[in-house]
Amino acid sequence: MTKILHAASQSLLIPVILGLLFFLVIAFIELGAFMAEAKRRKANKPVNMMEVFHDVGNIAPWQMKNLQQVIDSCSLLPRQKRPLTDLLAKIYLSTELKKLIARDILDREEFRAKKVLGKTDLLAKLGPVLGLMGTLIPLGPGLAALGQGDVRGLSEAVIIAFDTTVAGIAAGAVAALISKMRRRWYEQDLGNMELLLELVVGGETRAVQENEAGPAVRRRS
Description:
The protein is built from 9 helices and no strands. The chain is mainly α and 221 residues long. It has one domain. Helix 3 crosses helix 4 (64-73), helix 5 (78-89) packs parallel to helix 8 (151-213) and helix 7 packs antiparallel against helix 8 (151-213). The longest helix is centred in the C-terminal third of the chain and has 63 residues, at 151-213. It is elongated and about 85 Å long.
């Protein structure tokens, strides 16, 4: 039984090394994508939402022009602003339907964020695990070689163990850093989108009511 267990563990060495090489490639690809995303976000300077409201003026939620200015001035990406602008333009939808659309917009953005973070989160967990496996697997034969006086065999096993450890920790560390930064960005984006969607849904209800009431009612108000 022990021989079978030893053979099984030793057979995992090549898959572990291949997995670590794959993880390193994915980590550097994600690092490049992260740097590109950081550059885009740096160009799209982050702003405080209350400062945006102040700059736009005395904003009333039902004023479409002001809301569009707020959407255009916020720090969301163009991809995130587009559904907000589309929903703002649909002034004749019922409040219930607009709430469903707003919920769907947030759910889709949250799902996208989880999908992006899922890759680096998984990499941050599995990278060190494979690194540890790559450390332990060659040490058995290395210690056996030492018992037989084969110092060269031990040194080769130790080199493999150190290399796999470094590769696993490096891949996990890069992925963990990327996940941490992205999670902070996406949480801020979701918060801003939720605030703007609440304004759009509430504001458009008032806009429809004013249009249905007619100009005489607006003059009295």
